[in-house]
Amino acid sequence: MAYRLQTVNDITTPNEVGLGVSFSSNTSLFAPIFTTPVQTKENLKTLLLTRVGERVMHPMYGTSLLAIIFEPNLTSIKSEIKELISEPISYWLPYIDIESIDIITAEDDPLMDHNIKITITYSVDELDTSTITIIGTDNNVLIDWDN
To answer: Which of 12, 38, 91, 137 has the fewest CB atoms within 10 Å, counting from its CB?
Structure first.
């Protein structure tokens, strides 16, 4: 077996091999991902949007977030949602540090156009803090990943 050593210069070498693919790209169906923060966000999106039992050979992968987000807004729903988000992330994506999970319901802000707003602030190795916002309406779930 032969090996070839190649010098890599980030400035002149094009990104030929990506870390993964983005399913929410505006330019193409499967846009390649070349940075760790973008791949982390995609991994987090995939985990949050996968229902438990949906993934073949990984029946415990995912969350029950999509099922509970449309439940009646009781005072206990906030703690349930925080638990449904934080436990799978700590198990499946242990490199993600959750800084905060903020939940605002229509009970908290009666002027909201939607039923619930969940903002997850996270970081990887205490660097590059990012947020994901999930908005639940009566009809569907709108997810805004570009925060």
So the answer is: 12
Tens of pLDDT along the chain (147 residues) come to 555 555 544 444 455 565 566 655 555 566 676 677 777 888 888 899 889 989 889 889 999 888 887 776 666 788 888 999 999 999 999 999 999 999 888 777 777 766 788 899 999 877 788 898 888 776 666 666 554
pTM value is 0.73
CATH number of the domain at 30-144, out of 1.10.530.10, 3.10.450.40, 3.50.50.100, 3.40.50.1000? 3.10.450.40
**Distance, CA of 16 to CA of 73 (rounded, Å):** 47
